[in-house]
Fold these 2 entries.
Entry 1:
Amino acid sequence: MVSSALGKWKDRSPRWVKDAANLSTRGYALATSRDRPPPDFLVIGTKRGGTTSMFNYLIMHPGMLGLFPQSRGKKSTDYFFKEPQRDARWYRSHFHSETYRKRLQKQLGYRALGGEASPYYLWDPRIVHHVRRVAPEVKAVALLRDPVERAWSHYQERVENDVEPLTFEDALAAEADRTAGELERMLEDPTYYSEAHDWYTYRARGEYLNQLQNWASVSPAQQTLAAVQMSGAVQLPQPAAV
């Protein structure tokens, strides 16, 4: 109730109030980053596969924490692809402190877990290597969706965001040219973020095998769970090697 009320208050606040509150919160979080552990879980994608919904469902549980402060309602730090120049201290500052979790544990009877979600984490092949360095014990949940439905939903989102002028058929035909050389540039430059690789990969992003194999090649099988979205529902298999 308190976090919900704070969220509503922030939504109605002037921009300068939001900026000031964010600056103050970020300063405090950085100053206490030693007391803040890396994430316990990541929801890593796929795009338009239910990543945001899964994250929101998880943090409805009293023992699951989102990003600090919770009232901001953010689901991702974008650390692994848009903020690679930042250090692990900056990343940990986005998660709830152990001091807070110990207080919460007295109420719950168990330690609360924290995490974040981004549909790009599965898709960018560099990210799992970075994750293993920063949060080697993290558990990952990958949500998969019918590739055709996923591609169409992805396209509609791009149109709604005014960054896709082509028809769906033309966008599919243009995908290879739009993204040519982008992956190679990403692999050469760890700091490079490619909008084309993120925005216009309607067909390629639905080819899940290589993405899952890439994640599994670095992350232990028992730390990764792949779930399949079917007809609006999500089926959760037992954790197994990809």
Entry 2:
Amino acid sequence: MAGWKLCAVTCLAMVLLSLIPQLHLWLVRGRDWNGVYVSTQGDEFLYSAYINTLIDGRGRRNDPFGAKDSTATSPVPESTFSIQFLPAYVISFLARLSGASASTALIVLLGAAGLFASLSVFWLLNSVVGDSRLAAAGTLFVLCLGGLAGGHGLLGLLLKDDLSIPSLPFLRRYQPAAAFPLFFVFNGLVWQALTSQSKRGVRVRAILAGLTLAVLVFS
């Protein structure tokens, strides 16, 4: 029970941290925020546009800016969007189901990415070390300080005079925010497959790891 409490507190902290930019916009703009989402990355509008086309019912291969759909006589070539289509399909499906716009979907994704990333990292670390306190500390360390490895955020400003990438790059929507937690789920399943004492447990976890990897390939 204590482990789950630590997990819940860690997840809550990361969700709040993830939503700070959007909360700040709401606080500053009040009722005049006009339904827009805060963009922490310069290319998030590209992914938003593609999600919007899927919400409108257009096909997987389409040009969201040229308003062009792929047809037999005028095919649209494969692109990053059409190949890494699973996150966009899931987000657009849930948006249509709830009647939400692409902008609203990306706002929700910001908090959901913080939540599921926290859960997946905590689960992986807890599976490996068997200590919920260490797993909670490790989750915050990985998610909050992982950008330091690439010199992002304030460290990038000090070392490279570049603040173009924020300090929580995993929140870039929808790549890699939507599929980011699955990377840790994959590693956790592989770890459990290697350490399980049950042959059936090994097979189940190996199959699940393979399916997770297949999802990651198209995400």
